[in-house]
Amino acid sequence: MKVGSRRIGFVRRDTISGWQAFLISTVSVIVGLIVFSLVFVVSDVSPLTAYREIFGYAFLSPSGFRLVLNRFIFLALCTFAFLIPYRAGLWNIGMTGQVYMGGLAAYGVVYLLGGKTNPNLEVSAWLVLPAMIAAAAAAGALWAAIAGFLKDRWDVNEIVVTMMLNFVGSFIVSHMTKEGGPFMNRGGGSEGFPLPTSLRAPVFADIPFTALFVAVLAVALHLLFTRSSLGFQIRAFGMSPRAAQYAGIRTHRMGLLVFLLGGAIAGLAAYHQFAAVPGVYKIPRDYEIVGDTAFFGIICGLIAQGNALASLPVALLFAAASIGGRAAQGKLHLAFGLDFALMGVLMIVLVGFQFLYRYRLAFRAVGVETPPAGAEAAAEARGRGSEA
Question: 71-314: what fold?
Fold first, then answer.
């Protein structure tokens, strides 16, 4: 676009600094909230009042913050489960199915110990809890490995496979927990049996110990992709599998590897949601809502550009929007589904602003072409070469 003697347009960025990325993300959140304010205006509710209710309940109410924290842990783990295959150029759309399988495996350990028929089961939590966690991670990993194996062996599209596995996983959970299934609550109700009190996960200052999973994995994944040779191989494979193979990287099992790792983390998310969240401690009849929530891990990962540490504030934002939105919906007598609508608008705006991570607004004089990204550096290198 021409303005006077200057032309305004977008040019590709060479790099983006941390403060620039933070500024873009902050502006995108503000724009998303402004856009969603139209919903409140139409409903004759002051946007300031609505947002005060949403974020006040999410962060200032003790009960609300506990719910936000539990949702945040789940979203963060689902995000990590998506990120590992994503950095390899693959799409894990199957966290939902992996969460289902992880939940069934964790409760399978309890079932084998007689926890269904004996709610007062007395066993050593120090032995059983690690077994439940390991079973959940193993089940999630093996379920995800199906897509990784098919991708490596016959180049089957992993998006299609993981989506199909989500439906299969949902059917298996329904069979196991409803209509007389082996995991169904003894009192009926079409839901899983409750976890014995002795096997409930420890909570410290209202914080589930599974928060450690998030902290450790966030740092571990950051170091994996920035400091380790395995992380370099995964990133190289994601940029160009053929070039990675030419460079000597073993690529014939890369899909299986990243899906195993991602699925294991999804299994940990299942353990947290079904066995560590106070007030749940079972596979509920509305387990599909949990599966649907797992999809937001994909959005968090995309917005964070595949960065595990950067995904944490995004996951926290979505957790606060969902929990606070549900509370404001009832208090302000707003339409059902406000929480998911708010998350959806924020998601669309945040994804749209990803454009600014790759391009910047530039002003240049008419008739002067802005060189493409990296052209100046290349020209300087050629000049040094000719001088030599």
Answer: ABC transporter involved in vitamin B12 uptake, BtuC (1.10.3470)
